[in-house]
Structure formats: C-alpha cells, structure tokens
Write a structure and sequence with these properties.
- By secondary structure, the chain is mostly beta strands.
- The protein contains three helices and 14 strands.
- The protein has helices at about 15-20, 65-75, 90-95, and strands at about 1-5, 5-10, 25, 30-35, 40-45, 50, 55-65, 75-80, 110, 115-120, 125-135, 140-150, 160, 165.
- The strands form four sheets. A seven-stranded antiparallel sheet has the order 5-4-8-11-12-7-6, with helices on both faces.
- It starts with a strand and ends with a strand.
C-alpha cells in the first residue's frame, strides 16, 4: 500500500514495486549449489545482501519455485559468485528458469562444501544454510559464510539498474 501522512491511499501493484526497485542499482551474482543428482545448479540473483559481520552472514532471496532453492536446502550449502562486468553472458545463462542453464561452457570448480565456484568472478562466498524464512513469493535463506575468495584483478562489477546492465566508472 502507498502510505501518506494521512494514511493508506492505494495498494502497490507488483509492476509499481518492480519499477520503483529498478531505480536501486544492484550487483549481479550467480548463486550455485549441488542438485540431488550431484550435478551443479545455479541461478542469477541480485537479491543478495551482507547481513552480519559477527557472525559472518549473508542473505539470499529465492523465488519459491526455484530449483536452485530446492538444491540449496537439500545440500545445505551454496556459493555466491559476484559477477564482473564482462560476465553478462553468465548472468543471462543462469537467469533461465528450470534446468535450462547450461554448464557445458561454464568454467567452475567445487568449493569446500561442493558448491560450484565460477571462474573469473570478483568474489566467491561459500556458505552453509543457517536459517530460512518466508518472504511472500520468495524464501529468504541466511547463509553462514565459511570461506571467501576475492579477485586481485581490477575489473568493474556487473551492475543491474532500471531493467538493464549499467556501467560504473569512466
């Protein structure tokens, strides 16, 4: 609902909320885990946030119908792979619904929990599931960060803003 100084005026539609939140620039990640068959799974996510430094926690929001969410909960672990600007192709690949994301051309290696770490990312955070909470049509998964790895390369991040990719810097 839209609130004014006088009270509630009208409900907020999904389209209105999407449009308004599109004005909030976010980084782009691919959250990966291992499916029940032992194969890697992943989904593009920008609803990712640092939650706590002590203990080290992050939160990730997944669509309730996400197969990656199902795998994360079954496996009990996941990796947050922070994409660099040249990795738009990975963002598009992992934004596909269902099992349509192709792993054939995606360079990756398993981290300590077995969750895939994508090659060339700016950072990888390996997490175990700490909590899960309902969040409307999404589920919020809180992960305890077990290991981090960052890139020494001077590459800009992949940023999403107003429905498309944006650049940072000159």
């Amino acid at each position: 609902m839209v609130m004014t100084a006088l009270g509630v005026t009208s409900p907020v539609s999904a389209a209105d909320l999407r449009h308004a939140m599109g004005h909030f620039a976010t980084g782009v990640t691919v959250v990966t885990s291992v499916g029940p068959d032992g194969e890697p799974v992943g989904t593009t996510a920008n609803a990712v946030s640092s939650l706590s430094l002590d203990p080290p926690l992050v939160l990730v929001c997944f669509d309730r119908s996400s197969l990656t969410l199902e795998a994360v909960l079954a496996h009990g672990a996941f990796a947050v792979n922070v994409l660099a600007a040249p990795q738009r192709h990975l963002s598009a690949n992992f934004a596909r619904r269902g099992l349509a994301a192709a792993w054939d051309e995606v360079r990756h290696r398993p981290g300590p929990t077995g969750s895939p770490r994508l090659a060339g990312v700016l950072a990888a955070l390996e997490c175990t599931v700490e909590h899960r909470l309902p969040g409307g049509d999404h589920e919020i998964v809180v992960g305890r960060v077990r290991e981090v790895e960052t890139s020494a390369e001077d590459v800009a991040p992949l940023v999403f803003w107003r429905g498309g990719y944006a650049s940072i810097g000159p």
